[in-house]
Recover the amino acids of this structure.
């Protein structure tokens, strides 16, 4: 048994013992008063027996509080020595039952008091002497009902707190699912770019096996570097997903493993490096970056700009090999940001078939731009090229 359950059971047992002891003390006190008043031995024995029976009924007061109080009614009519046990039963009913039950059981209990006064053979009992008893009885009932209301209030607050914790856990799980979806989109954008470079150079080596050794060595170097970077990106993504799953299965925040901070996200300042990488791969690319250098751009907006350009270059490399590509990025905080990637018609045949998954990049890019509150358009141009244009708000 857990410690809280054991402590609660111990408190219940101590409370029951105290209630029975209070009833016995009442029996002894009133019995001594009757003995001093000259009551006969037979009458004294009858009253003491009724008082002890009432104390014995207190054993079932937690399971059947109203039934115990009703069963004590005839005993109260017989003997005043049942007063202590009856008050305990009365308090239990008020503390554990609704007020209609309390009112009904209390009315039956109070109806026995006039009968008790009427049948006293050892001296008339002044009805006015019962007034303090009635006040005490009503006070005990009020105390019990206040405790019941307080316990109900505490239980309601506990349920609300548990419900709030459950809702918070649901929000955390939802945030993790959204983060996994974001990581999946990033994985597609990054790996698609790396794999397109690998496919391009591997296809070139297959298409031109008689190329000069310098050109073969340069292509092999690009293949090695792209494969190494793709493997590093994939390992980082898998590590993030594993760390997130482990944190979600932890029982408490203290049990969660530390998550390594993510590396810096790409920004418009990284576009020249991206373009230079494509140039080294043999892709003619021009970049016109007209963004203001002094303005502070949100990190998420800068990352979206980079991914749009990266996906546009990847599509051009896949579907229009050898075509010249023009990348234009411009805008400001008031008008938003416009990103444009225009490629001409392919001038060389594709060295390898288009890899699987082609065509899904634009769908993912459209979702990224839509979630950012922007617009994306793409269509062929009149000279059989392709135009990709996106507008993004400066602030989301």
């Amino acid at each position: 048994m857990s410690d809280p359950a054991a402590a609660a059971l111990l408190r219940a047992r101590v409370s029951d013992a105290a209630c029975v002891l209070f009833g016995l003390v009442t029996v002894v006190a009133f019995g001594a008063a009757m003995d001093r008043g000259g009551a006969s031995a037979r009458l004294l024995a009858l009253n003491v027996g009724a008082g002890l029976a009432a104390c014995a009924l207190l054993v079932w007061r937690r399971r059947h509080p109203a039934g115990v109080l009703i069963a004590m009614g005839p005993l109260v009519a017989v003997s005043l020595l049942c007063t202590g046990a009856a008050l305990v039963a009365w308090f239990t009913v008020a503390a554990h039952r609704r007020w209609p039950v309390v009112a009904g059981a209390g009315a039956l209990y109070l109806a026995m008091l006039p009968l008790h006064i009427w049948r006293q053979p050892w001296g008339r009992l002044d009805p006015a002497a019962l007034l303090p008893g009635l006040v005490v009885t009503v006070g005990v009932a009020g105390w019990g009902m206040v405790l019941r209301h307080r316990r109900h209030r505490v239980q309601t607050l506990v349920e609300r707190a548990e419900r709030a914790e459950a809702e918070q856990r649901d929000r955390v799980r939802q945030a993790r699912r959204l983060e996994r979806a974001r990581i999946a989109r990033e994985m597609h954008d990054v790996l698609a770019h790396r794999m397109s470079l690998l496919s391009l150079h591997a296809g070139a080596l297959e298409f031109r096996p008689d190329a000069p050794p310098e050109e073969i060595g340069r292509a092999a170097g690009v293949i090695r570097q792209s494969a190494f970077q793709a493997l590093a990106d994939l390992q980082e993504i898998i590590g993030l997903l594993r760390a997130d799953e482990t944190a979600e299965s932890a029982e408490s925040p203290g049990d969660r493993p530390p998550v390594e901070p993510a590396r810096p996200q790409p920004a418009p300042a990284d576009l020249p490096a991206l373009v230079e990488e494509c140039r080294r791969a043999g892709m003619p690319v021009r970049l016109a970056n007209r963004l203001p250098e002094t303005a502070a751009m949100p990190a998420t907006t800068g990352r979206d700009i980079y991914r749009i350009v990266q996906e546009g270059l990847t599509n051009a490399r896949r579907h229009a090999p050898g075509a010249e590509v023009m990348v234009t990025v411009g805008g400001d905080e008031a008008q938003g940001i416009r990103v444009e990637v225009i490629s001409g018609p392919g001038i060389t045949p594709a060295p390898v078939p288009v890899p699987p998954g082609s065509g899904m990049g634009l769908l993912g890019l459209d979702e990224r731009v839509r979630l950012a509150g922007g617009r994306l358009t793409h269509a062929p141009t009149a000279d059989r090229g392709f135009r990709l244009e996106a507008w993004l708000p400066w602030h989301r």
Notes: The CA atoms of residues 263 and 309 lie 20 Å apart. Confidence is low (pLDDT under 50) at residues 251-261.
